[in-house]
What does this fold into?
Amino acid sequence: MDMRGAVTIVTGAATGLGAACATRLAGMGCNVIVNYSRSAAEAAETVAQCKALGAQAVAEQADVADDAGCRQLAQAALDRWGRIDALINNAGTTKFVPATDLEGLNAEDFQRVFAVNVIGAYQMVRAVAPTMRKQGQGSIVNVSSIASMMGVGSSYAYMASKGALNAMTLGMARALGPEIRVNAVVPGLFESRWPRQGLGEERYQAQLKRYRETNPLKQVPSADDMAEVVLWFITGGAPVTGEILVADSGSRYGAPTVRHDR
It folds into this structure.
């Protein structure tokens, strides 16, 4: 897809992966809705970066767990630019609870995590789908997590929510074609303030070190690296829908093989 003059909504775009996606899109000439729920100052910074790259961008506050907020985001894009070409469902939440602590989560915790990570993504798709169908094309990318496949992560609620998002991606790919392609990216660990805040600096750095030492590529990607993967589904991948693409530096395969040619 030629992104010059196209319009993308990126949820959870004030910081991290969402911000990286927004600025990469802007660099391609794409106009961007930068959604945020609480981080107004950071969202304004992301918008400024997008504008500096020559694109139009606007920050829109909305909690994707609220259906009215999702419809507001879609309408904001239509009011400003008259179209919606892509949606990146990046907004997410969690509660950091060790897997051994079965008393650490209650029903309300699950409901809040699912409200954002699953229901929010569903509501955003519902909000943009009529416009994409009318246009005859659109691309939706759901940002999942390796937690959905490996049984590890910040909490059981988070793991389960991302598994549900994967399943929903497959169903939507079947239902929304041929006009709309729906895919998901499943990131492994990448540099982000979210796990740093949740784990604390010492544990976060230890996790980065362990991850780097035990994946075949011996790397921890940046948010910008991961954004490149997400955007491939929008800018390329024309024959691809219903794909769950794992981007984890091969960590699920374990430590790299010992080589004797070095």
Q: What stands out?
A: The mean pLDDT is 93.
